[in-house]
Structure formats: C-alpha cells, structure tokens
Design a protein that fits this description.
The protein is of the alpha/beta class. The chain has a single domain, classed as Rossmann fold, CATH 3.40.50. Strands 1, 2, 3, 4, 5, 6 and 7 form a seven-stranded mixed sheet that branches. It starts with a strand and ends in a 5-residue tail after the last helix.
Length: 204
C-alpha cells in the first residue's frame, strides 16, 4: 500500500528548502510518494524588492514547487510542515496555508494522519523550539498524530532537535544546512513515512 507524504514549507533563502528536499529523500527511500509544495509570499513586490536576493530565490523556488492546496493535504497520509522562524514563531506564509485547511478540519479529513515539523533560524537560539512546538499545536487541532524525531538514531545527537529537523548558524543566515542537519532530515522523512504507513489502514 503506497504512502503519500506532503511536505508543505516556506523558505526565503533556501535553508528550509534544503531540509525539505532531504526529508523528501528519506521518505522516498522508504517507498513513499512525496509532494514538495512551497507556500507563497503574502507581502507586496516593494517589500520583496527591499531584501537582496529575495525575489530571485522566490522566482527560482516557485518555478520548482507548486503552492500547497487543501487537496494536497487530503491526498496525503502524512503532512510535514516546514518554516523559518519569524520572531520566534512560524512564518505567516506557512500559517496562511494551515489556515486554509479549515474545511478539511471541519470534515475530519485529516484525523489520524501523521504530522511532523521542521525549520530554520538565523541563530541557534532564535526560536527553533517555539516554532516547532507551535506547529505541534496546530497539528493537534487538525487531529494529526504528531511524529517527533526523538533520539531514535545516533545522528539526532549531532543535528536537529527532538521535535523536528532544524538548521541554524549563530549570527548569520544559512543557505546550506550542515551535513548532520541534512542527515537528520533524511531520518525524519523515513520515520514519518514509516509511521504514516502504520496509521493509514487504521483510518479505514
């Protein structure tokens, strides 16, 4: 029985995108079918243009990834949410996508699917835990079965968090996560796919 994994993320500079791709690799290695989807900007062109490199990165990513839809979430057996931290909380771009899932929530369409989170910050203590735990709260409302990374693989002692994959470098923005962070992300993808496969037949 095929397992479907949706990775819905927002990334400005590419750090969260890199983790998303590694998670996809781990899930696919476990036999899952994966959809990578990038949430879209909510601000205007003037704001985007005021930040060097933002528009180029946005255009590149939007050409690669479709925007996530409620239909993607209904298709999925597991949903993995990814976001950079914005002042200690999830980005507005990803939150807007989560807010669009109200119809599925009301109909119980997401209940007992697997859920997980990942993200990136500009510093080691820039809100990684609060962002991931905030996503856990949203997943609880949706009825997802939260799948944390834990410490089930030795690589998780070198990168990420017990809550989900994460990358950061003190004092600077990161475009390429460390090798350990990417390895943790692959582990996360494989773990989520495995749990989703167990949950799928239980949903009837």
């Amino acid at each position: 029985m095929a397992t479907n994994v949706l990775i819905a993320f927002y990334s400005r500079n590419g750090s969260t995108e890199a983790l998303a791709k590694a998670i996809a690799e781990g899930a696919e290695a476990g036999g899952a079918e994966v959809r990578l989807r990038r949430a879209r900007e909510l601000v205007g062109a003037d704001v985007i243009g005021s930040v060097p490199g933002w528009k180029d990165s946005m255009d590149r990513q939007n050409a690669l990834y479709a925007a996530p839809t409620p239909e993607d979430a209904e298709w999925a057996d597991a949903i993995v949410f990814g976001s950079p931290t914005r002042f200690g909380i999830v980005s507005s771009e990803l939150k807007a996508y989560i807010d669009s899932l109200g119809g599925l929530w009301f109909g119980g369409k997401l209940f007992n699917k697997a859920g997980a989170a990942f993200g990136a910050t500009a510093s080691a203590h820039g809100g990684a835990e609060s962002t991931l735990l905030g996503l856990f709260a949203a997943m609880s409302h949706l009825g997802l079965v939260i799948v944390p990374n834990g410490y089930g693989d030795p690589i998780t002692f070198q990168g990420g968090t017990p809550y989900g994959s994460h990358t950061a470098v003190d004092g600077q923005y990161v475009k390429t996560p460390a090798d350990a962070d990417l390895a943790v992300a692959k582990y996360q993808g494989a773990r989520v796919a495995k749990v989703a496969a167990v949950l799928k037949p239980l949903r009837g």
